[in-house]
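Consortium newsletter contribution from the modelling node. Members have asked for a concrete example of what our holo predictions look like. Here is one, prepared for the phosphoenolpyruvate complex that several groups have been discussing at recent meetings.
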Amino acid sequence: AGSGKFFVGGNWKCNGTKDSISKLVSDLNSATLESDVDVVVAPPFVYIDQVNNSLSGRIEIAAQNSWTGKGGAFTGEISVEQLKDIGCKWVILGHSERRHVIGEDDQFIGKKAAYALSEGLGVIACIGELLEEREAGKTFDVCFKQMKAYAGKFRHTVSPSPPVDAVPSWDKIVIAYEPVWAIGTGKVATPEQAQEVHVALRDWLSKNVSAEVASKTRIIYGGSVNGGNCAELAKQEDIDGFLVGGASLKGPEFATIINSVT
Ligand code: PEP
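And here is the predicted structure:
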C-alpha cells in the first residue's frame, strides 16, 4: 500500500435479493473494520435505497453505472442527480463487463465520468487489458489509452480548455486497474504483475497530468481478490486498495480484505 488512504470497493454486480442483501448488510454492520480505510459498496440500483437505509454510515454507497448527462427521455437509464438524491457518493464507470459484455467504448465512458465528476460524485474509473492484449505485449498501451479517455474528458469539464492538471476533480477519482483475464476467473494477477502496471499508471499520470496528482491518486487493483491473496497484494507499494467482485458478497471475507492493509 502507498501513502494515500487505502480504498476498498465491493462491486455486487447483478447479484442479490432483498433477503440476501439484508444478511450481507447485517454482516457488514457487525464486522470490525480498520478505521484508516475508505470502504464503498455498489449494490444493484434497485437495492440502493434498502442498503442506504440499513448500512452503517461507516461504508459509503456507489452505483454501478450512471447516465452521461441530466435525466430525461432516456428509457432505462439512471441519472447522476438521482443517484445523489438516494445517497450515492460514488459511481463505478468503465467496468470491463460494461466495456466487453455491453459494448461501452472509451468515449462514452469518458463522457459519463466527466459528467459524474462535474456533479460532485466520486468516480471509480476502471481500466484493464484483455488476455490477448497482455499476451501481445500491449498491456500498457491499452491501459494508457483508457486513461487518456478519462483524462481528456476531465479536461473538458472546465473551460476554456485548461491543462489537465488544472482539473479540480482528480481528488474524486480512484483508478481501478482490473485486468480482464483476472475478473471473476479465480486467476488473480501476481503482486508483481499488478505492481508493474500500477507504477506505469502513476508514471503516466505524472507525465500527462502532474506529479502531485500522480502521487495522490489512489490506484486500486481488481480481479479475483479474496481473503487469501489480499495481504500479499496489499504489501505492494503502489497498490492503494482493491475493487472486489465475488468476495464482496461475503461479509466476513470482505472485512478481511478491508483489513488487509495492516
Ligand atoms: C470486479 O468485478 O470488479 C471484480 C474484480 O470481480 P472479481 O473480484 O469477482 O474478480
